[in-house]
Amino acid sequence: MVAEGALAAGCRFFAGYPITPASEIYEVMMRELPAHGGLALSAPDEISSLCYCVGASLRGLKAMTATSGPGWALMIETLQYALMTETPAVIALVQRLGPSTGGATQGAQGDIWLAEFATSGGYTVPVFSPSSAAECYELTLHAFNWSERLRTPVVLLSDKEVGMTTEVVDDAALAAPAVVERSRFDGGRPFVPYGFARPEEVPAFAPVGDGVKVTVTGSAHDQQGRLRKNAPEVIEVLRHLEQKVEAHAQEMALVRTDLDPGAPFLLVSYGITARAARQALPALRRGGIRISFLQPQTLFPVPRRELDWALAGVRTVFVAEENLSGQYRAVLAPFLGSRRVVGINKLGGLIAPSEIAETVRAAEA
Amino acid sequence: MAEHPYLSPEAKLPYCRGCGHALVVRQLSRALERLQLPPRSVVLTTDIGCVGLADSLFPYLHTVHTTHGRSTAFATGMALAEVLQEPDRLKPVVMIGDGGAMIGLLHLAHAAQLNVDITVLVHNNFLFGMTGGQHSALTPLDLVTATTPTGNWTPPLDLLALLRAAHAVFLARQYATDADLDTVIANAIAYPGFALVEILELCTAYSTRWNELTGKTLKEIVTRQGYKVGRLEAELERPTFREVYRHELQSRPSRSPAPETPLPNIQATLAAELRLIVAGSAGERVQSAAALFCQAALAAGLYTTQKNDNPVTQGTGFSLAEICVSPKPIEYTGMESPDVILVTSADGLKEIQANGVWARCRQETLLVMDAELDAPPTPSRLLRLPLRRAATPQRAALAGLAACCATTSVFPSEAWDAVIAKLPGERRLDAGEALRISRQLAAPSGEARP
């Protein structure tokens, strides 16, 4: 469904490398892209994969690759290059148990920090997290749209369980957004490769190879793309990299909620674990517990307003995720005030609805 | 059009006095002039190092300054995208050093294999200049550098020999001082596939200070290392990537969605969610049988999920399929308390004992086991069927699933018929046979207790 979403979004370039549990995306794109007028090929490693994608994107194509933790580790240099050069690209990161080779056929939600905090300088990388096949399609479309609109790499953070569970999808019910294209330079004035009037603006894009001269560099640069040391304009360009994303954080915020206003408990979960969370709710409520539920589909930028809204009147926040380090719990911590925060964590297996329910009931006691 | 579309003769070059890079950029400019390439049809793709200072010298070309060693890979990406253009014009020219060629060796090899339309100019001055003169994979033996103070004792790579093995068509090795370097570069750019020119240079900041290195001794080094100079004999008659890919595109059938035959209106009988595990052996079509079950459930209007498990080595050992089926959308897909467990082989039995599923069997669980298996004590309802013997090991899973459907009401057998009818030839016959046998097995009695 990730591949289907990419094709629907207008992706016309894919370079891939096989890795469990992401290989199916690669195989589908290899099979389907030529028929859609695009190009898909195998790369000799993950570094090449993302470099090829960025090159194709510089030429104007929507590009994607797909990998898992060990491959992502190799892509981090090029992720930063895409970010610095404001080049759109979508990377599907299908999580598996780590670290290192870990468990190729075992699920996990352990790459949240790795996906978001892998840039020197700590710039916000938009990350979307699907919990079902339908969301894989929808969120891949959103990922492409935001990548193109903001001229930034975007991560579609799936996991082995979501990626390798076959399930029924109702095509008619898919909530697919309209496809967005990157804003192109339309002439009529001198072209400024990284030009903006206000820092939250996204520079108009001109493809390498077309009529207007393009300057691209991974070095810290001014609006013209020139490497300069100690120039205030360079610092402004760096600030703009963050501000263009931050300014759209609210618009990018996608969540699913099941709120009980006034409930003292809030359960937060994402990805595969959100399914267990949703399953646990009815039994908890039938037992008399009042609890709200929030599933962030946009992990980063953190959906602040939706979170604040869900937190109203809440005294205890549960964050359920299949990692031991409480990665998203740590991300949310600064926004939770002095509320009690309880992590529901596990490694090496799905968190069951009963495990979530037990923890909530124990907290009530 | 600017008077100097490429390198202006008045341009102030940023290199040290005597640096070979100055010669290369001038010869590149002359090469572009020879070819009369429109500046906007060239993208100078520069690597890290002193080579990467060339961008600002060519104000009318596209310039892309990349990460170390990756210039070739980004150029390849651009060249690949260009394959979809009609006509194609974009010529990436990669400016890379010996250091970059080392770290990006894989990118060079792959670009050569693909035969994409990029031109790579390797500025080989035997060391990393910008960072202070450290040695690289192309440093000749005995050369003194910042990191080989007593002389290099690691024999260098012969880059051209390596790329020849990668099926590169256009390979040349020249000196930066060659008078006809511009012609060689022009020919390289003109070739519509991968072309690489290794240009031997002197780094006047480091190598000539720490070694007796002149134009003459440079030639002696070349002889001593056994390097061939000039255009290398190429693999002939090899198509370019563009030629191959466009031919490939044409020979593929254009996509037309398969005509969907609407499924007959089948009503499922399942009242509540059912969780089912099929445990068998790899190579016995366990997972495809499970998939067929799910499609039959879908035909009857049910929601299903399927997850598979097998050892990392795909062809041997156990094969598991975990199925949830429900009249309502399914959230959690775990198998804490499966309602039905179908075991078709000893591998499958062993795995569900090892992974804890067996221990979670309850009284209400229906255990359908192949009659040949030794069933350990269990509180569950046990149904033994001669699946392997009657249906064959390859059809045991499908026959077993059909039997499960009959015993535990999920959907009517018309749903099976509907999905089996849509299978291609042999598979349809095979599945039909499995179904027929399962009906035979189900007919006489119900359960059998040990």
Strand order of the largest sheet of chain B: 2-1-3-4-8-7-9
Q: Give the distance, in angstroms, between the N- and C-terminal Cα atoms of chain B.
A: 93 Å
Helix content of chain B: 25-40%
- Spans of chain A of at least 5 consecutive residues whose pLDDT stays below 50 are none
Cα-to-Cα separation, first versus last residue of chain A: 42 Å
Tally of individual helices of chain B: 15
Instruction: Give me the number of helical elements of chain A.
Output: 13
The helix/strand series of chain B, from N terminus to C terminus, equals: HEEHEHHEEEHEHEHHEHEHEEEHEEHHHH
Summarize the main sheet of chain A.
7 strands, mixed
Sheet of most strands of chain B: 7 strands, mixed
Fraction of residues in helix of chain A: 25-40%
Structural class of chain B: alpha/beta
Structure characterization notes:
The complex is a heterodimer of chains A (365) and B (450). By secondary structure, chain A is an alpha/beta fold. Chain A has helices at residues 2-9, 23-32, 46-58, 69-84, 112-116, 133-150, 160-163, 232-246, 249-252, 272-286, 304-311, 327-332, 353-364, and strands at residues 13-16, 39-42, 63-67, 89-95, 127-128, 153-159, 165-167, 215-217, 255-258, 265-269, 291-296, 298-300, 316-321, 340-345. Helix content of chain A is 37%, strand content 18%. In chain A, helix 1 runs parallel beside helix 6 (133-150) and helix 10 packs across helix 13 (353-364). The model of chain A has no long low-confidence stretch (mean pLDDT 97). Chain B has 450 residues and is of the alpha/beta class. Helix content of chain B is 34%, strand content 17%. Chain B starts with 19 loop residues before the first helix and ends in an 8-residue tail after the last helix. Mean pLDDT of chain B is 92; it is low at 446-450. Classes of the chains: A alpha/beta (365), B alpha/beta (450). Chains A and B meet through helix 3, helix 4, strand 7, strand 8 and helix 10 of A and strand 2, helix 2, helix 4, helix 9 and helix 10 of B. Strand 8 of chain A pairs parallel with strand 2 (62-65) of chain B, so a sheet runs across the interface.
